[in-house]
Every structure is written in C-alpha cells, then in structure tokens.
C-alpha cells in the first residue's frame, strides 16, 4: 500500500444549507503537491434498502430527483437519524418510502459514491419478511412502488429511468447474496 | 409516469472552484412545495473504463481519494475533454491511469451517482484488446494497477478498499455483458 499524502492545509471555501466545500492542499510521497476540492462529510451516513418479497421480487420506487429534474426508478434510501443504527434507519425509510416494514434485515456492504471528491457513505441493507406498514416521512408525495423480478435484472438495466449506480450495485449484490 | 413538479425558482447559493450549489424551489403536482439544494452540472460528463484482458482479468487501479483521505481500489475514470467522444475519452484515461490502450471499446450504460442532489453522469465503457501505452496525464503519481479475475468478483466485494458503487455496478454489468 502506498504512503498516504501529507495533508498540508484544509480550508473551508464555500457553504450552503446542505453543502460545505473544502480545499485540501496535499503533498504526495513523491513530493508532488496538489490542491483538491471536496464536499465535507456531514451526518451519520445513509442506508439504501433492497426490499425483496417472498416471490423474489424487489420493490423499486419512482422518485423525483432534482439533480436530473425528472422521475427516476431507484431503491428506497435515506439518512440515518440520531440514535438509530443502520437497520433501524433502513426499516424506517422502507416504511416511509415504500409502505413496508421488514422482519429480516441483512447488511451487504458499505458503498461510496464519488470518493475523489466526497466521503459520503451508504450502507446497502437487504430487507426480507416484508409486511405492509406506512410511516409518514418528509416526502412531498407518495412514491409509486414498482415490483421487479430479481432474475430479470439485466432487463431493468435497459430502462433509461434506472441509472443510479448505487442501486445497480445493490441489486447485483443482492442477487449474489440470495444465491448463496 | 407522474406529472413533474413545476420549478418555481433556481438560485445560485454558493460557488467554489469546482462546485456550484443551486437552491431549487419546486411545486409538486399535489400542490406541496419544497426547496431543495443540488450541485449544478458542469462539463461534458465522464467515463469509467472497465479494462478486460484476454484472460478475463480486470485492471483495477489504486488511487488516492481525498474524500476518504485514503487509497482506494477502483476503475480508471475521468472527465470527457472538449472535442472527445466517450470512447476517445475512455481510451485516453486508460492510457493515463493504467498504461494501456484499447482496440475494442463498448459502451455499457450511462450511470448517475446521487441524482437526488446532483445531475452528474458517468458512462461505463468496457475496454478489450489492450496494448501497453502510457500517456502523461495530470495524475500526481503513477497508479498501481491490480489485476483481478472477473469470475472472483464476489471476493473483491469483501475488500474494504473496494467500495465505489459505480465501480461495483460497472464490474457486475461487465460480467453480465461478457457472458452474453
């Protein structure tokens, strides 16, 4: 493993309600210096939930994504609230976004989104033994829930509304996990 | 498909060298109003390259990721330069980051990273028929190249240095693509 660069200086260069931008001056072990920017980490991390029915179907949600200015097909997800562990957060978000609770939660993997400029982490959690239960969250509208057979994952990838890399990775990992 | 929310107002709330933050006021079709923040889109998109050898091994790179303040195992990637198409950008980045060119490039899928707060898109490109060729890029140090058998993908997921969701998704899609 290479020797990590030395961090010479971290400067907060911009702030908004959600985002905090930092400039980081680094010296690599070969002496080369670089200045990078990144989004600072906030909060306790997030969870992405892969709800799987007894018939091996996953519950996708159709959610408005303001980054794309369009509806997108993805998996339920959300930030971990204070006092919650990953499974409690997963169960709550599943109830808020898809209207189901789960009696059987399994953690698959902690994933990063774009580690070159942000430290954000999201934990993929498989949710099984589902039962109907709706919790009121802060969602502006009720999300459409779309059932999709896990064995037809390759066809889902042809859908241009299904693009989120974290959801693609989570579904493949789930298929592999359930085959074991 | 639901009716898209009406965008009432977009305000630029923070700027740094790389990032531009926007606040968006929306009215959903049910009348509910929300104010969100997002990172504005910049540039021509990006490519992630999945280099596959004749022996069905992928070439991973070990790169310093300032978001994590650590080295991470991932796939070569980079921004598309002016005048380049996706395949030209993929071939160039592969030469810069892994020291290989490719005679056979195939586009797999356009992926998004975190569509709820950014519009960034990255195209996964499989690169085969590799040949040694190093181009000097803007990398601060030469990256270690790690060969990994595609058939042992599940074991790679156990590695805590391999976390990037876009790379996980890209490798699974590549395995599926090559099995066809």
From TrEMBL, chains A, B:
Keywords from the named record: Hydrolase
A GO molecular-function annotation: ADP-sugar diphosphatase activity
PROSITE patterns assigned to the protein according to its UniProt record, in alphabetical order: NUDIX, NUDIX_BOX
Family annotation (Pfam families): NUDIX (PF00293)
Keyword Hydrolase: yes
GO biological process assignments: nucleoside phosphate metabolic process; ribose phosphate metabolic process
InterPro entries in UniProt: NUDIX_hydrolase-like_dom_sf, NUDIX_hydrolase_CS, NUDIX_hydrolase_dom
Coiled coil: none
UniProt entry tagged with the keyword RNA-binding: no
Entry's Gene Ontology cellular component terms: cytosol
Required co-factors: Mg(2+)
Domain Nudix hydrolase as annotated: residue spans: 41-172
Name of the protein: Putative MutT/nudix family protein
């Amino acid at each position: 493993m290479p020797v990590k660069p030395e961090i010479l200086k971290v400067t907060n260069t911009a702030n908004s309600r959600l985002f905090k931008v930092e400039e980081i001056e680094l010296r690599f072990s070969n002496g080369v210096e670089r200045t990078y920017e990144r989004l600072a980490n906030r909060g306790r991390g997030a969870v992405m939930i892969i709800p799987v029915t007894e018939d091996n179907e996953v519950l996708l949600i159709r959610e408005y994504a303001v980054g794309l200015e369009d509806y997108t097909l993805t998996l339920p997800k959300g930030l971990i609230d204070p006092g919650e562990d990953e499974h409690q957060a997963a169960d709550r978000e599943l109830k808020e976004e898809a209207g189901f609770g789960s009696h059987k939660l399994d953690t698959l993997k902690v994933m990063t989104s774009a580690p070159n400029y942000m430290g954000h982490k999201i934990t993929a959690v498989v949710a099984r033994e589902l039962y109907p239960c709706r919790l009121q969250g802060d969602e502006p509208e009720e999300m459409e829930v779309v059932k999709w057979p896990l064995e037809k994952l390759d066809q889902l990838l042809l859908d241009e509304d299904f693009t989120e890399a974290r959801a693609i990775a989570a579904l493949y990992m789930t298929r592999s996990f359930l085959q074991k």
